[in-house]
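dumping this here before i forget
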Amino acid sequence: MIVAGIDVGGARKGFHAVLLEGRRVVDQRNTSDAEALAHWCLRAERIAIDAPCGWALAGQRSRLCERQLLAAGVHCFATPTRDAALASRSNFYGWMLRGEALYAALQGHGVPIAREVQALQARCCFESFPHGITIALSPQLEVKAALKLEQRSALLERFGVSRSGLSSIDWIDAAVCALFAELLAEGSPVDVYGEPGGGLLVLPVCARHTAGSG
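structure:
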């Protein structure tokens, strides 16, 4: 089974995507074209994307999944309402809007966003993020953003994913997402945060996490 992991950047950096099959990287792609990437991903049965799959609800500054993660001690970016993202003069949220475009393109090709736990059992795309994945799969470590290159590379090596061709943190992050997509497809248990309105965020089960499992 082929799975995909995608690191989402702004318009200039673009998307970094990795296809994984049996812990082996079978293809990579860097593009700013969400539609082209969605078509490229059609080989994959599960697609883990490092970008929000929804926006904060009206009157809120973050999503439920993010508040649950912070309560569990896992740092993550806060996703505003879509209107707030569009109104930002700094373009800080540009990468989130690029993620939105990718989710929309995938849906246009018949790949649904996982809005409930049961949807993860079939072909879908879903939200995750490398920092949370690394924490969940490395309970023996104190995971730090400053050590993300070393710690995420070590995680890939521990699961038998070669770093050959993964020449930057963007490629490594895409591969970490793909690794989790493969573990999920193999039936590994997951923790699901959030609710359908603001989007679900999926991570591997870890004893540190206190939010509900699925």
